[in-house]
Amino acid sequence: MSTAYRNRIQEFKVALGGENINLKTLRELCFNGIPFEGGIRALCWKILLNYLPLDQTLWESFLKKQREVYSQFLKEMIIQPGIAKANLGLSREDVTMEDHPLNPNPDSRWNTYFKDNEILLQIDKDVRRLYPDMAFFQRPTEYPCQLILDPQNDYETLRRRVEQTTLKAQTVNRNRSGVTNVSSPGKALNLYPSNEYEVLPNGSEAHWEVVERILFIYAKLNPGIAYVQGMNEIVGPIYYTFATDPNSEWKEHAEADTFFCFTNLMSENRDNFIKSLDDSQCGITYKMESVYSMLKDKDLELYLKLEEQNIKPQYFTFRWLTLLLSQEFLLPDVIRIWDTLFSDQDRFHFLILVCCAMLILIRDSLLAGDFTVNMRLLQW
User: Fold this and answer.
1) How confident is the model at residue 34, as a pLDDT?
2) Which of 161, 169, 301, 310 has the greatest number of C-beta atoms within 10 Å?
3) Rounded mean pLDDT of 288-307?
4) Can you give the three-state secondary structure of the chain, one letter per residue?
5) pTM for the complete prediction?
6) Does the structure show a pLDDT above 60 at 173?
């Protein structure tokens, strides 16, 4: 480790050491990259994403409260219904004369349960293939959710819920445009080859299962947007950063902390996922056109070339902007970009600047290429 890097770590320790953190100073430090050592990056992200208060004296009580809230979400949205073990001779609290699995009433908890399965199937399919070039998300977490995996209770995990889904006749996909695709019968339970994922022993769960739970709870709490494909790519780097924190006291609560940080980030980014807002000033169309407006100002020749070839920003910037570049780079590079993105007060304007810079970086190839070559370059 170089002397300059050690000095940089020390600067962060000083900035994070006082009772009241100076956000302006911290933002300036983080803009040029955040060290991983000592859990500095994970801590800074929690502050930059407006999760942790700037007054450190409030952290202990705040975190205790937030983690209790998340535990309550687990109890209400994962464990119910099906809370009593039939083999203990207990009456099932989720099956009554008034509410049962065949109840057609739209207000029935069971009706909701079956509708939730549609969302869960899409989440499950996406999280299982999260960063397939890395083994991390397939490995067991050091801190499985004891509330759900407690052998004394035998609660239904989301993984088991997917495997035993009642939607056996069809697989439902909902894309961002709200289009529902239903596959032919008989394929729903063959989503994954039996040998594709290592089966973990009872009491263990893989990191992708934690991410699945976070996204499912988010979808339940935000029915207006629910889950849209691509959200898994946004929550993944946040969870990875928190779940690899060298400080075990923080790492143990990576799931709850990720949920709240992801929720805060989505509160700023969610308009990109809502189809009805696309053409508004806060929608994704306006942002995509802003990339070209900036390119026109910074590199007129390249802008005219893309216009001449009728290469519209929608063809490639949609993914760049909605997923915050998470699919354009390897995870370590995504994390480094997000250090700067999160530290910028006007973070989404900065994202447009980065997208414009990405185009200018390959300008020579774009100026020399035809439509087909350039589309391949931009959608790679």
Assistant:
1) 96
2) 161
3) 96
4) CCHHHHHHHHHHHHHCCCCECCHHHHHHHHHCCCCCHHHHHHHHHHHHCCCCCCEHHHHHHHHHHHHHHHHHHHHHHHHCCCCCCHHHCCCCCCCCCCCCCCCCCCCCHHHHHHHHHHHHHHHHHHHHCCCCCCCHHHCECCCCCHHHHCCCCCCCCHHHHHHCCCCCCCCEEECCCCCEEECCCCCHHHCCCCCCCCCCCCCCCEHHHHHHHHHHHHHHHCCCCCCCCCHHHHHHHHHHHHHCCCCHHHHCCHHHHHHHHHHHHHHHHHHHHCHHHCCCCCCHHHHHHHHHHHHHHHCHHHHHHHHHCCCCHHHCHHHHHHCCCCCCCCHHHHHHHHHHHHHCCCHHHHHHHHHHHHHHHCHHHHHHCCHHHHHHHHCC
5) 0.83
6) no
Instruction: Report which of residues 257 and 287 the model is more confident about.
Output: 257
CA dihedral 165, 171, 176, 180 (to 10 degrees): -120
Count the Cβ atoms, other than its own, within 10 Å of residue 235: 25
User: If we measure between CA atoms, which residue out of 6, 34, 324, 330 comes closest to residue 46?
Assistant: 34
Question: CB-hemisphere CA count at 13 Å for 214?
Answer: 27
The contacts found for 169-176 with CB under 8 angstroms, 24 or more apart, are 171/121, 172/118, 172/121, 172/122, 173/122, 173/125, 174/118, 174/119, 174/122, 174/228, 175/228, 175/229, 176/228, 176/229, 176/230, 176/273, 176/275
pLDDT digit string, tens, across residues 222-243: 988 889 888 999 999 999 999 9
**Distance from C-alpha of 136 to C-alpha of 273, rounded to nearest angstrom:** 27
d(CA 321, CA 230): 11
Give the Cα separation of 134 and 332 in Å (integer). 11
How far apart are alpha carbons 198 and 195 in whole angstroms?
A: 7
CB 297 within 8 A of CB 304: no
**Which of 335, 355, 226 shows the shortest CA–CA distance to 288?**
355
Q: For residue 283, which of 216, 334, 348, 337 has the smallest C-alpha distance?
A: 348
Query: To which residue do tokens 């898994």 refer?
Result: 232
